[in-house]
Structure formats: structure tokens, C-alpha cells
Amino acid sequence: MTLSVPRHFRLLLDENEIARRVSELGREISADYEGKELHIICVLKGGVYFLADLVRELTLPVTFDFLSVSSYRGTESSGVVRFTKDLDEDIESRHVLVIEDIIDTGLTLHYIERNLKTRKVASLALASFLDRPHRRKVDLELDYVGFVIPDHYVVGYGLDFEHKYRQFKDIYAIN
Ligand code: 5GP
User: Fold this and answer.
1) Fewest 10 Å CB contacts: which of 5, 24, 34, 95?
2) Number of structural domains in the chain
3) Which residue segment(s) compose the domain that 140 sits in?
4) Where are the beta strands (DSSP E) in 32-165?
5) What is the CATH number of the domain that holds 153?
6) Distance from the alpha carbon of residue 36 to the mean position of ligand 1, in angstroms
7) Sheet of strand 9-13: strand arrangement
């Protein structure tokens, strides 16, 4: 028995495509950071599946930590973002890679980037499993992107619809 997929969900990326791409990213990141230790910061909650799969594809010593930010949805124009859970560990002098589930306006990751840059990191890179560039409001340079997707709300592989369906192994678009 598996959780049934609601009728208005349309398959966008299946689990095999996702696994292949995550594995490619793992190889790329492992090569880029060869000889270094990488500290990954996962943005909760949507990034957790990507984090879990990606770190198992890395051939580097890695550590990871989590942060959580408040949603600005509903006050979108203000771009207000607030940390609701800060990091457990100090990141000074570390090579940091921030992992997000999806970048839409870019406001969330832009805020996180500015904040983490003040903490004297050795380097800071940005990765997102999905990139939907259509509504971007700030310039963001993403170092690693899984897939660039069309302008639809998406669900699965950690991404929710009304707090549910994060556990789907595939990604669905909602029409
Ligand atoms: P941004 O600040 O880039 O506009 O939005 C980033 C955050 O909004 C993501 O980390 C995610 O939590 C949420 N988000 C944006 N688009 C989607 C989507 O299509 N599906 C889901 N489930 N969350 C989204």
C-alpha cells in the first residue's frame, strides 16, 4: 500500500531522474571540495530529503546542521524573513554549503546568505534542488541546482502541499 496521489497532481520528475541528478551533483560537489571538509546547512523542512540523499553521494568528510526560517507567504511583497531556528554550531572558518528545496522569489535564500556571510565563513556556496526562476525578485547566484522547473507549485521529495505529501518520492506539479 502506498499513499495515493491526488488527481490534480501531475508527475514532473520521477524518483529515478531525481536519484540520477542527485548523484551527479554529489560527484560535482565532491570534486569541487576535494581535500576540504564541507559543512552543509539544510533549510528546514523541505530540504531534508535532498540533504539525506546528497550527503550519501559525497566522497568527502561532511558535517551538517539545520536552520529554519519563517514563511513570508501572505506578506510576500515585504520580503520579511526571520530565523525561527538558528544553527547549533559555529560556522566561522568553515566551508559552508547551504541546501534549499526550491528557490522561487529568492528572498529566503538571499536573506540566509546575507546573514551567514557575517559569520566569517571560509567560503559560502548555495545549492537548491529546484530552481523556478519566473518570479525571482533578487539576484542570487546558485552554485548547484538540481532541476530548473516551469512555473507551477510543486510537491513531493520534501516539498509540501498544505503541510502534507512531503513523503512522495517523485515531484508533482499542481495545476
Ligand atoms: P522564496 O523565498 O525563494 O520565494 O521561497 C522559498 C521557499 O518557499 C522554499 O524554501 C519553500 O519552502 C517555499 N516554496 C516556494 N515554492 C514552492 C513550491 O512550489 N512548493 C512548495 N512546497 N514550497 C514552495
Assistant:
1) 34
2) 1
3) 9-174
4) 38-43, 62-69, 83-85, 95-103, 123-131, 144-148, 153-155
5) 3.40.50.2020
6) 31
7) 9-13, 171-174, 153-155
Q: Catalytic residue among 65, 104, 143, 160, which?
A: 104
Atom of ligand 1 minimally distant from the CA of 101: 10
Ligand 1 in reach of 154 Cβ (< 6 A): yes
106 lines ligand 1 (CB under 6 A): yes
Q: Distance (Å, rounded) from C-alpha 98 to C-alpha 142?
A: 10
Q: Is 88 a catalytic site residue? A: no
Q: Is the peptide bond before 45 cis (omega within 30 degrees of 0)?
A: yes
- Whether residue 48 contacts residue 158, with contact meaning beta carbons closer than 8 Å, is answered with yes
Q: Give yes or no for residue 41 CB within 6 A of ligand 1.
A: no
Q: What is the pTM assigned to this prediction?
A: 0.94
Ligand 1 binding pocket includes 112 (Cβ within 6 Å): no
- Burial class of 1 by CB neighbour count within 10 A (0 to 12, 13 to 18, 19+): exposed
**From the CA of 160, how far away is ligand 1's center (Å)?**
9
Assigned C-alpha cell, 90: 559555529
Q: Could you report the per-residue pLDDT of 54-90, keeping only the tens digit for each?
A: 999 999 999 999 999 986 665 455 567 889 999 999 9
